[in-house]
What does this fold into?
Amino acid sequence: TVVFDKTGTLTDARLKVKEVLVWASHLGERELIQLAASAESGLPHSSIGQAICARASELHLAAAFDVTELQARVGAGLTCRVRGARLVIGSEELLQSHGILLDAAQ
It folds into this structure.
């Protein structure tokens, strides 16, 4: 699950990944960023996609995973399969529509 907060866009007019929170015990921050960058690199770049790819570049991570079944939803996010696993990047509503529920602590 990837969740983004747009805080900061009013001060420098572009998004930047400032913090990554990972709730899956089998997945580290670097792998999560690499998975997301792999998905986002296949799309016309949105400001969120650019921020993810920039963070991957800062960490010297290539967007190297094969992405299949990529579907972008304007204003909501994207879904795809990466290394056989489903990846959903986007709004809380998009996450919920795929059965991903965030509790208050998340």
Summary: The mean pLDDT is 83.
